[in-house]
């Protein structure tokens, strides 16, 4: 009997939540061991990051990419190690933005120590690039681009395609304000995202160039696990995995998360299918998958690893235990 494959979805900027997965941070756990290893590798900054992570809500410092992105990487990577400790794979990895770096680390493109170096370098590369922002629009890509055609400066760029009707824009604050006005006038629901940077837009090209110099110092290897890229919406090949520009350039290029997830689900629309493990604290990564025919038919299933809201130790542990039990029920624990 063939079993479903396990695919792990890893979040990026915007999915951060106060104390996300903190209930799993207990002495002796696999999760804590990998969180501590990463935070220790960051040196003095790691101690500050731990304190910022464990602060109760409200915690506006999480809006800062220099805090949110290393934490998103650390939590996603540690959850991936927990799944691996169950002998459940994952056999497929897909990350959104900073989550793509966590996916690459889990796939063996670079090791955990190199990951700490890269996340610190990514933060350094972002210095001086603030002043922009990001805007989520509840509309399809084609509708958004059509409505924004002809705006005078054109600096509100498509930064991400997160779902069939989930498009994100990024750019300077003034350009986003004009784009927001145009979209609202057309009846499109929009909301600002928790970001002070114009990620995945041309505004980030200088930061991407700086980051590439750091990535070039790291040993990059072919992925040992099937690794999908939200930059190309295809699996990462050996050549791409070894190119510093491939990993650094994502800072200035759109995130094609929904096209990647849709292609992955299309590839498994007939049995045995996939178990999609959602590592996001807001369950945003699996939300668009629920509308895909492969999930609606039951061929592929969605399983959250976190409660989907700010929770405590009990909720965090219960959700993770339920995921493990679901995988056991699927016959996926070796």
From TrEMBL:
SMART domains (alphabetical): PKS_AT (SM00827)
GO MF annotation list: fatty acid synthase activity
A biological process from GO: DIM/DIP cell wall layer assembly
Entry-linked Gene3D superfamilies: Malonyl-Coenzyme A Acyl Carrier Protein, domain 2
A Pfam family the protein falls into: Acyl_transf_1
Keyword Phosphoprotein listed: yes
Membrane-spanning intervals of the chain: none
SUPFAM superfamilies: FabD/lysophospholipase-like (SSF52151), Probable ACP-binding domain of malonyl-CoA ACP transacylase (SSF55048)
Key words of the record: Phosphopantetheine, Phosphoprotein
Stored InterPro entries: Ac_transferase_dom_sf, Acyl_transferase_dom, Acyl_Trfase/lysoPLipase, Malonyl_transacylase_ACP-bd, PKS_NRPS_Biosynth_Enz
Any one Gene Ontology cellular component term annotated for this protein: plasma membrane
Domain Malonyl-CoA:ACP transacylase (MAT), residue spans: 9-309
UniProt keyword Transmembrane, yes or no: no
PANTHER family: FATTY ACID SYNTHASE, SI:DKEY-61P9.11
Name of the protein in question: Malonyl-CoA:ACP transacylase (MAT) domain-containing protein
Lineage of the species this protein comes from: Bacteria, Bacillati, Actinomycetota, Actinomycetes, Kitasatosporales
């Amino acid at each position: 009997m063939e079993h479903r494959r396990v695919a792990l979805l890893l979040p990026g900027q915007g999915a951060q939540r106060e104390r996300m997965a903190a209930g799993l941070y207990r002495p002796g756990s696999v999760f804590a061991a990998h969180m501590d290893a990463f935070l220790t590798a960051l040196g003095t900054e790691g101690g500050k990051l731990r304190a910022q992570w464990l602060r109760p809500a409200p915690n506006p410092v999480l809006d800062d990419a220099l805090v949110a992105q290393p934490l998103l990487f650390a939590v996603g990577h540690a959850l991936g190690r927990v799944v691996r400790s169950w002998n459940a794979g994952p056999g497929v990895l897909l990350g959104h933005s900073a989550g793509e770096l966590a996916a690459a680390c889990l796939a063996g493109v670079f090791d955990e120590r190199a990951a700490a170096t890269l996340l610190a370098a990514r933060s350094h590369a972002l210095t001086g690039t603030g002043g922009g922002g990001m805007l989520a629009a509840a509309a399809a890509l084609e509708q958004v681009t059509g409505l924004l055609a002809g705006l005078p400066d054109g600096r509100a760029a498509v930064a991400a395609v997160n779902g069939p009707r989930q498009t994100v824009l990024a750019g300077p604050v003034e350009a986003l304000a004009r784009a927001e006005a145009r979209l609202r006038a057309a009846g499109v629901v929009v909301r600002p995202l928790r970001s002070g940077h114009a990620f995945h837009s041309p505004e980030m090209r200088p930061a991407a160039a700086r980051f590439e110099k750091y990535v070039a110092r790291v040993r990059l290897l072919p992925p040992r696990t099937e690794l999908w890229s939200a930059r190309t919406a295809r699996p990462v090949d050996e050549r791409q995995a070894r190119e510093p520009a491939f990993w650094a350039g994502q800072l200035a290029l759109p995130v094609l998360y929904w096209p990647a997830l849709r292609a992955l689900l299309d590839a498994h629309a007939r049995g045995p299918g996939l178990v999609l493990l959602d590592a996001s604290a807001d369950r945003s990564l699996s939300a668009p998958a629920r509308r895909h025919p492969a999930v609606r038919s039951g061929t592929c299933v969605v399983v959250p690893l976190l409660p989907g809201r700010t929770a405590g130790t009990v909720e965090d542990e219960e959700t993770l235990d339920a995921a493990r039990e679901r995988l056991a029920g699927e016959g996926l624990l070796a």
